[in-house]
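FAQ: What does a multi-protein file look like?

Like this. Sequence, then C-alpha cells, then the next protein.
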Amino acid sequence: MAPLEKWIQTYKKPVLALQATLVFTFLYLPILILIIYSFNDSRFDANWTGFTLNWYQKLLTGLTESTADISTESLWSSLQNSLIIALSSTLVATFLGTLMALALERFRFPGSKVLEALLLLPIIIPEITLGVSLLVFFTLVFRILENLTGIRLTLGLPSVMISHATFSIAFITITVRARLSDLDPALEEAALDLGANEWKTFWRVTFPLIFPAILSGALLAFTLSLDDFVVTFFTTGVGATTLPLFVYGMIKLSVTPIINAISTLMLLVSLFFVISALKLQNQVNINN
C-alpha cells in the first residue's frame, strides 16, 4: 500500500469529522451567539453585562423605552400580517401544488416536460430575481387593469400572498410527487376493480397515503413564507409590513437585544415546523 493511501485510510475518519465540525460551526455559531445575546442585560450587543429575560418580557408586555422607537402594536401587527400571508399562501399553494403533482405523475400531456422545467425555476433562480420579476409583473398588471377599468390597485397583502404561493407551489409539488412516485399503482387498481369510481379511489386510497407528504410540504411552505424577506420586500406595500421587514426596520433604528429576542422566537417557530415536516416525511418512508 502506498504511503498516501495508508495515510488516507488511517486519518480519513478524523479528517472527515473535523471537516464536518468546522462546517457546522461556521453555519450555526452565529445563530448560537444571536440566541445567547438575546438574554444580554446590556442594550448594546457587543457588551455582555449579565443574564436577563427583560427583552422577552418587553415583547409580551410592551416597549416603554423611547430609544427603542418601536411599539408593541406595530410589532404584533407585523406578526399578524406574517401569519395571514403564510396561512393564505400555504393553503393556495398546497391545493394547487397537490393538483400539479397528481397531473405530472399520473398523466402525460403536451407540454408536461416544459411545465416540469418551469416548476423548478422558483427554486433555482435567486430570490432577488424572483422578487424583481414579480414586482414588474404586478406593476404591469395593475397598469393594464387601471387603463381598462379605471380602478387603481396597489401592492399590499394580496400581492405578497400571491408571490409566496408562487414559490411555495414548487416545493409542495416536488414533495407530493415524490410520494406519488413511490405509491404502488396496484392499490388504486384494486380499488377500481372492487367497484369504486375514480373519485372514491382518490379519497379512500390515494389521499390518505399521500396526506403526510401534503402536510409535510405545507409545513415547509409555511416556514418559507414566514421567514421570507427578499420577495416580500419587493412585493409589499403600505400596511403590509411582515415580521422580517419589521426586524429589518428595527436594525436601521437601534440594534438592541430585542432584535435578537425576536429572531430567536422566529427561529424556534421555524425549527418546529421544519422538524415536524421531516418527521412526517420519515414516517412516510417507514410506512413504505
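And here is the next protein:
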Amino acid sequence: MSDSRLEDLDGPVGPWRGAAPLAASGIAVVCFVAALALAWMSAGTLLLIFAGVLLGVFLDGLTRGLGRVLPLPRGVRLSIASVAVAVAVIGFGSYGGATIVQQGRDLGTTIKNQAGTVTGWLSERGIDVPSLAPQGGGKDGSTDSGQREGGLGGLANGLLKGSSSIVSDAGSVLGPAAAVILGLFDALGNVLVIAFLGLAFAADPKAYRDGAVRFVPPAKRWRASQVLDGAGETLRHWLFGQLIIMAVIFLCTWAGLAFLGIGGALILGLQAGLLAFVPTVGPLVAGLVIVLAALASGTKAVIGAIGVYLAVQCLESYGLTPFIQKRALDIPPATIFAGQLILGVIFGLWGIALALPLMAVIKVLLEQLYVEDTLHEQPSS
C-alpha cells in the first residue's frame, strides 16, 4: 500500500484498526449493566422519587390551569393550588375519617371471616389453599432479599440493624411496638419526602429540565428539551385523566353498594377507586374484596355486588378510559400487563403500582428518540 493511501485512512491501521469503537462499545455495555444494577439495588428510592415527580406534575398542572383564570405570579398560583389540595385532603379525612376507620375495621373482620369460610369450603372439597402468612422471615417478620428497601423506612431499618448490639435486649421487650413505630416512620417519612419533592419540582420545573439537558451534547439539547417536555405533557394528561376515572369509580361503586345495602359501602368504594390507579391487578383485587364483603349479606347481595362491579368495570374499560386517556396513553392491555410483570419483577410492588406512568414515559422516549430520530418515521396515532 502506498504512503498516499495510508494517509487517507482514518485512525490506526493494522491490528489496532477498529479497536477504539470496540472499546467504546464495551465501556457502554459495562455502564449500562452498572446502571441496571444500581437501579435494582435502589429501586424503592428511585420509585419514591418518581412518585414525587408525579406529585410535581399534578401541582404543575393545577398551577397552569389557575393561570388561565388568575393572572397571578407562578409562586402565588402554586401556593393556592397546594393549599387547596391540602385542605381537600384534610377536609375529606376529617369529614369521613371516623366513618372510614370504623367501616375499615368492620370490613377487615368481615373479610377475614368470609375468607376463612371460603377456605374451609374449598378444603372440604379437597382443594388446599396455601396460607397467606409470611414465611421465611426473621423474628420481626422481615424477609431477606437482595433488593434494599427505599425511602426513610430503609434508612431507619438500616439504622436499627446497625445498632442491633445495643437494642437487642430492648427489641425483645418492645416486640410488635417496634415494628409499628418503624412502619409509621416509614409511611409518614415517605409521604413527607414525596410532598417535598413534588413542591420542589412544581416550584421551578424549567430549572430541573434545563439541569438534566446540560448533560446532553450541545447539538442535541434542543431535541432533549422537546423530549422532556413531551414526557411531562403526557404524564400531566394521563394523571388528570386517571384521577377523573378513579373519582367516577369511587362514586359509582359507593352508590351501587349503598343502594344494595351492603355494609362498608364507603370504604369499599374508596378502595375500588384507589386500586383503579393500578391497572389490571387493582380492579381484580377490588372485585375480590367486594365479593368477600358481600358474602356476609347473602347470595342476593353477592349477585348484586358482582353486577355493580361488572357495570363499573364496563363503564371504565369501554367508556371512561378510551375517551379520557386516548390522548395520553394508547397502549394495548396485553402490553400493559406484560409491562406490569416486568416492572413488578424489577421494582416489586412499587413497580406494579407505578407501571402506567412509567410506561407512558417509556413510550414517549421510544417514539421520539427511536421511531422519529433513528427510524425517521412518524409514530402511529
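Q: Is there any per-entry metadata?
A: Some entries carry free-text notes. For the entry above: The two ends are 55 Å apart (CA to CA).
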